[in-house]
Design brief:
Layout: H1 3-21, E1 26-34, H2 41-51, E2 61-67, E3 70-73, E4 79-81, E5 97-101, E6 105-112
Parallel strand pairs: 1-2
Antiparallel strand pairs: 1-6, 3-4, 3-5
This protein binds zinc ion.
The site of zinc ion has 8 residues, from loops.
Amino acid sequence: MHELGLVYQVVKTVDEVVKENGLTEVDEIVLQVGEMSDVVPKFLEEAWAAAAPTTDYPLAKMTVEVMPALAKCLSCGYEGHVKTFAPDCPHCHSSNLKITSGRQFDIKEIVAK
Ligand SMILES: [Zn+2]
């Protein structure tokens, strides 16, 4: 389950932010995960539940926002939602797509004091 590895990466980043800003308590960590990334939000939340007690933020909540798979078709100009697996343009079926959203794995927000 590579979600656990991701959780520890997130914790590392949170550690840095906490240190830089002199924070003491983290209430919530908000992540943005693309539909097309190979991360399962449910596994991520479970991994956090397992990992949290071993971190400095045992009471922090992890919220995962799923970002839609969006693309622009370079053949016909379609812009919008595409399939998450083997995406093609729903309009002209070209696979000449520029993915604009859906592959991200970002920390959107750290709610802390
Ligand atoms: Zn198209």
